[in-house]
Amino acid sequence: MKFVVEHISKNSGRLGCLVHNESGKRYKTPLLLQVTKGGSIPYLSRDVFDRVTQDEQVLLLSLATMDHMSEAVMESKAAGINRLSTYIGFKDYLTFLTIRDPCEITPSRLNDKDMVPLFTRRGKIALTAQKYMDLVEIFKPDIYQSLNDADTNCQSAKKRVQKSVERTQQFMNYCCERQQQSPILKDSVFFASIVGGYNVQARSQSIKHIKTKSQCSGYIFEGFHNYGLTACKVSCDQLIPIVEHCMKELDFEKPKMLPGAYTPLVMLELIRLGVDMFDSSYAYCAAINFKALVFTYNKQKHVSEAKAEGPFIDITDECLKEEFVPLLEDCSCLACQQHTRAYMHHLYKTSELLGPILLIIHNLHHMMDFFATIRSTLLTNSLNDLIQLIKYQSGDKQVDYCITANTKVIKKEGLGKGFVNTKS
């Protein structure tokens, strides 16, 4: 696996490609990785996902949702299935293994000296560096991140931040040693985890240690939030100064990634700084909280034409029951081509499983098309114009893209069948 920078925009930001050495396939950056749960796109079968996009994607696999599959993966290798992507039904897709599920909030303050807590469907698991690398060798992803202590956020004390840096350095030393010695991982690459919360000095300390490791093929920023909806609350004012400082100290030619459900505006500001990779957890978090993404990123289409409905539509809104129009006009996704807002509202009211399926289809299509637009604006050096459009949507006030947790409740007999429901 190698990364190639193809174009540097005059307004900052860059276009590049992840190149798979074995197949020669190229994945354009800025890149949106597809979040999976247990190796599957949430709510979608492989056949349905192929109707969302025909392009091969990079899959983000989290150990938190896949640890229970390790024995089955070992048995599949004995049967001749050597690639993880083939085992999960996405043959020839690239796989990126991370530790935590970016769609779910990770509990805090449960750390021990030589382990990282992994919260799975089976409960909390103590993940040591040795156990982690054993699992990495079993799954054998194309890319994986180094083990890290990322239990920090904007409220973390300086002592907690310093501990996260020191423990991450300890874990990375072991990961690098295993990566270098393991014949199983000779075709896999790892991204070094940069930690340090919102402390500039701690981030620099983390980077200084990483730069002594020649095995590192890329960087992944951790420790800004606790994943899930907490990532939506991270503002540009908090995040950008820290990332901008770090970018000056990192190798330019290596790819950078920030996992989590960051808002579209934060993503754009990070892309302007040179971040290359994100994940689709924002689309998932919107869908399970009854939100259809409708923000416009087309500079030729004024927001006034789209009735200025805001960044998303809440399908629980009673006013939708008489709206027999698509979720978004001119959207070519399967949900918008065949169904209406009124029908989506009906699916919510009846707690039908088809509801979140259609919302995931629409939201993923919307985000993938958004990233295609980002790449085209970088090529024409017009990223600043796109940032202004996303920030204000042609209005006077800055748009709020933060997703709030659903607090509406439907009948008890419907719970668990379709949409996620949270009692208020």
From TrEMBL:
PANTHER family: QUEUINE TRNA-RIBOSYLTRANSFERASE ACCESSORY SUBUNIT 2 (PTHR46064). Keywords: Cytoplasm, Metal-binding, tRNA processing, Zinc. Heterodimer of a catalytic subunit and an accessory subunit. GO terms for cellular component: cytoplasm. Binds 1 zinc ion per subunit. This is Queuine tRNA-ribosyltransferase accessory subunit 2. It comes from Glossina palpalis gambiensis. One of its GO terms (biological process) is tRNA modification. Its cofactor is Zn(2+).
